[in-house]
Design a protein that fits this description.
Layout (H helix, E strand, L loop, with lengths): L4 H8 L8 H20 L24 H6 L10 H4 L14 H5 L9 E6 L5 E4 H5 L5 E8 L4 E11 H6 L9 E6 L19 E5 H5 L4 E6 L2 E2 L9 E3 L12 E7 L6 H5 L23 E4 L10 E4 L7 H4 L13
Parallel strand pairs: 1-10, 4-11
Antiparallel strand pairs: 1-2, 3-4, 4-7, 5-6, 5-10, 7-8, 7-9, 11-12
This protein binds the ligand Nc1nc2c(c(=O)[nH]1)N[C@H]1C(S)=C(S)[C@@H](COP(=O)(O)O)O[C@H]1N2 and molybdenum atom.
Length: 331
């Protein structure tokens, strides 16, 4: 009998993605319960997981440029460069937060190409430098919020994703955009382990992908993106949990149906497709109402706990993307 997918996912979810010790112990308990349930009841039922497509995006008035620009900066204290580049999630290089800074040095970031395909008039495989040609690299200081409860304030360098996508002329069938990371076991030791169903994948609804706040990042703190932060090209979507920020992207596809995403596939009850930062929708195993802000001299050990804001504080810019949607259902 094939292993129940929910149990398989529960067995594979790595300890590093668990917020704290008590949650981890609770998770271990849950895993034991699941094993017991499977042993005693072969007809173990799957928890109801909604596979129907979400409603289409609401019609939206054009965003006021001054309002958008307010989303590009913050007067909150930035995270130190050494914290932002040594406390990372990048499972291709291990499941520990310190692993990527050490292990990702082996990732070669040039030459690099991105294949763009699917529902668009001008598909192509493009060299990274050609892909970025003619686009202005901007600096934007964004708050970042990880699903595990920590947050950072990071000055990113990058180009608006929408500007890049437009060049491929997406058709009216392009309802979503699917992203894929490199998965090369030669360069990425973590890919040899079964932690995630490789390659790492993410997705956005087309209106989210075209939103001016969505950034294709190429650098941080005025420097080229270090490998551990997703070089040479990664997504930054400041109103969503950090795992939407897919790293080292090699493929972009315009698609009609909701694309599969790495964490949703692993644990659909815990990681939804939208993953908008929302203090009112808890992760099933822990609260999302507050966050540990790793910023300034506070560093990782003495990070202050602050309340989490709806859409990570970007509600003025993005809330109308979700008008009429039940954010508990579409978490
Ligand atoms: N390819 C890939 N992208 C990824 C991940 C990953 O494991 N592999 N981890 C995600 C998670 S869980 C987070 S919180 C952010 C972390 O980005 P940072 O290390 O730049 O802070 O990257 C996301 N992008
Ligand atoms: Mo994360």
């Amino acid at each position: 009998m094939p292993l129940d997918p929910r149990l398989r996912a529960a067995l594979r979810i790595p300890a590093a993605e668990i917020a704290d010790e008590s949650a981890y112990r609770a998770f271990r308990g849950e895993r034991r319960r699941l094993l017991g349930a499977l042993a005693s009841a072969p007809a173990f039922a799957l928890a109801g997981c909604d596979t129907a497509a979400p409603p289409p995006p609401a019609a939206r008035a054009k965003l006021d440029p001054a309002l958008v620009a307010r989303g590009f900066a913050t007067d909150e204290e930035p995270t130190r460069y050494e914290d932002a580049t040594t406390y990372n999630n990048f499972y291709e290089f291990g499941t520990g937060k310190a692993d990527p800074a050490n292990a990702a040095k082996t990732l070669r970031t040039r030459p690099w190409s991105v294949a763009v395909s699917g529902e668009c008039a001008k598909p192509g495989t493009l060299d990274l430098d050609a892909l970025l040609k003619g686009l202005t690299v901007e600096e934007r200081i964004y708050r970042m919020r990880c699903v595990e409860g920590w947050s950072m304030v990071i000055p990113w360098l990058g180009v608006p994703l929408g500007e890049v996508l437009k060049r491929f002329e997406p058709t009216s069938k392009a309802k979503y955009v699917a992203f894929t990371s490199l998965a090369d076991p030669e360069q990425m030791p973590g890919v040899r382990y079964d932690s995630i169903d490789w390659p790492y994948r993410e997705g956005l609804r087309i209106d989210e992908a075209m939103h001016p706040l969505t950034l294709l990042a190429t650098g941080l703190y005025g420097k080229t993106l270090p490998q551990q932060n997703g070089a040479p090209l990664r997504l930054v979507v400041p109103w969503k949990y950090g795992f939407k920020g897919i790293k080292s992207i090699v493929e972009i596809r315009f698609v009609e149906a909701l694309p599969a995403t790495a964490w949703n596939q692993l644990q659909p009850q815990e990681y939804g497709f939208f993953s908008n930062v929302n203090p009112d929708v808890d992760h099933p195993r822990w609260s999302q109402a507050s966050e540990r802000r790793i910023a300034g001299s506070a560093s990782k050990l003495f990070a202050e706990r602050i309340p989490t804001r709806l859409f990570n504080g970007y509600a003025d810019q993005v809330a109308d993307l979700y008008t009429g949607m039940d954010l508990r259902q579409w978490f």
